[in-house]
Amino acid sequence: MKTLIVYCSSHGTTEKAVSVLCVNIEGEVLAVDLKRDKILFDLDDYDGVIIGGSIHAGEIQRKIKQFIKQHHDELLEKVVGLFLCCIRDGDIAVEQFNHAFPQDLRKNSVAMGLFGGEFIVSKMNFFERQVVKKVDSVIKDESHLNLNAIMEFALRYNNIRTPV
């Protein structure tokens, strides 16, 4: 099965998660950071699509939203996995996930994951550092990336066969 992973990574956390997925997803995998990469691809060339991003100020990246809107109907015909990197957990993380991805796409997904998150203060701009300090009392880098969740996601995704 050929899988396309599209994602956006603001400070590197989502990119780390995608690196783990690339090693653990079976078959041919192409990973594209929609913010940085200038790789052209055709969704018709892929059996599956994994979409992921991170939460900043309560929202997933705009480029992820645009990708989903542009390819919505095509995505409903694919094997789809959805993941989110966010520092929150529990009900708040679930709410952020549900807000990030449309309901029909979530229902159609074979794998969904909340991968935890990181505060990479060293890569934040002044404004971001001030917000993180005020809201979360964080002044240095912190990682809560959940490798077990990433591996469980990969296992669920790999257990699906190519649609006929």
Task: Give an overview of the whole structure.
- The chain has 164 residues and is of the alpha/beta class.
- The protein has one domain: 3-Layer(aba) Sandwich (Rossmann fold), CATH 3.40.50.360.
- The chain has helices at residues 13-24, 62-75, 90-100, 103-108, 126-136, 147-158, and strands spanning 2-7, 28-33, 48-56, 59-60, 79-85, 111-114, 116-119, 142-145.
- Strands 1, 2, 3, 4, 5 and 6 form a six-stranded mixed beta sheet that branches. A two-stranded antiparallel sheet has the order 7-8.
- Helix 1 (13-24) packs across helix 6 (147-158).
- The termini are close together.
- The mean pLDDT is 87.
Any chance you could write out the topology, listing elements then pairs?
Layout: E1 2-7, H1 13-24, E2 28-33, E3 48-56, E4 59-60, H2 62-75, E5 79-85, H3 90-100, H4 103-108, E6 111-114, E7 116-119, H5 126-136, E8 142-145, H6 147-158
Helix pairs in contact: 1-6
GO biological process, one term: heme biosynthetic process
Protein name: Flavodoxin domain-containing protein
InterPro entries: Flavodoxin_dom, Flavoprotein-like_sf, Protoporphyrinogen_IX_DH
Mind telling me the CATH superfamily name?
Flavodoxin domain
CATH architecture tag:
3-Layer(aba) Sandwich
Task: Quickly count the domains.
Answer: 1
Give the strand tally: 8
pLDDT averaged over residues: 87
Low-confidence stretches: none
Q: Span from first to last CA?
A: 12 Å
Write down the overall geometry.
globular
Task: Tell me the CATH topology.
Answer: Rossmann fold
Series of secondary-structure elements, N-terminal to C-terminal: EHEEEHEHHEEHEH
Strand content: 25-35%
SS content category: alpha/beta
Which CATH first-tier class would you pick?
Answer: Alpha Beta
Total DSSP helices: 6
- Largest sheet report: 6 strands, mixed
Rg estimate, integer Å = 15 Å
Helix content: 40-55%
| Oligomer class | single chain
GO molecular function: FMN binding; menaquinone-dependent protoporphyrinogen oxidase activity
Protein name: Flavodoxin domain-containing protein
Domain Flavodoxin: 4-143
Pfam families: Flavodoxin_5 (PF12724)
